[in-house]
Amino acid sequence: MADKPHFGTLNYFEALANEMNNDPEWLAMATPMTYTMVYDYGEPVNKIFVMDFKEGRIDSFRELQSVDEVEADFTFTGPGSVWAAVIKKDLSPTVAMATGKLKVDGPQTVLLRHMKKFAYLNDKMANMDAILPD
After folding, report:
1. Running DSSP on this structure, what letter comes out for residue 131?
2. Distance CA 82, CA 20 (A)
3. Are 54 and 34 contacting, i.e. CB atoms less than 8 angstroms apart?
4. Is 122 among the domain residues?
5. What backbone torsions phi and psi does residue 89 show, to the nearest 5 degrees?
6. How far apart are the C-alpha atoms of 91 and 84, rounded to whole Å?
7. Is residue 1 part of a domain?
8. What strands lie across the sheet with 35-41, from one edge to the other?
9. pLDDT tens, 108-127?
10. Cα separation, 1 vs 80, whole angstroms
11. Could you tell me the residue range of the domain that residue 75 belongs to?
12. Is 53 exposed, middle or buried (0-12, 13-18, 19+ CB in 10 A)?
């Protein structure tokens, strides 16, 4: 039996990429998405990752030392515990952003245009058998 991926690690992003890149429904809806997204996970994770979407596929991902290492279309910042609450659906991503628990740097109109896709991605993350922070 394979080990469960840990949120905030490269194996988590690898599992997510495998899940999404092999999902025909996702690929059909996400084709217009070609963005670079940085995820800055605060306590207790304290790691930064970048994920590149090319026509909906997760093309690459890697850990960064600083959010300034890449030019991102979006940078999402927040504590690992808030991310876990969003992934577990204990907290809506919209509410998390509106209350400042998660911060987003990037064009809000583009984010809103793709909300259905991001909700689908979050559903997939919620259904991954992963270890999340407390």
Report:
1. B
2. 22
3. yes
4. yes
5. 65, 25
6. 9
7. no
8. 57-64, 47-54, 35-41, 74-78, 103-105
9. 899 889 989 988 998 898 88
10. 26
11. 10-126
12. buried
Whichever domain contains 70, its CATH number is 3.30.1050.10
Asked whether residue 102 is domain-assigned, the answer is: yes
pLDDT digits (tens, 9 = 90+) for 71-95: 999 999 999 999 989 988 899 988 9
Which residue's entry shows tokens 């890149």? 21
Residues 6+ apart with CB under 8 A from 84: 7, 132, 133, 134
Q: Is residue 3 part of a domain?
A: no
Return the closest-CA partner of residue 47 out of 21, 89, 83: 83
DSSP letter (8 states) at residue 4: P
The angle subtended at Cα 67 by Cα 45 and Cα 20, nearest 5°, is 70
Cα distance between residue 42 and residue 80, in whole Å: 5
**Domain count of the fold of the chain:** 1
Residue 7 identity (one-letter amino acid) = F
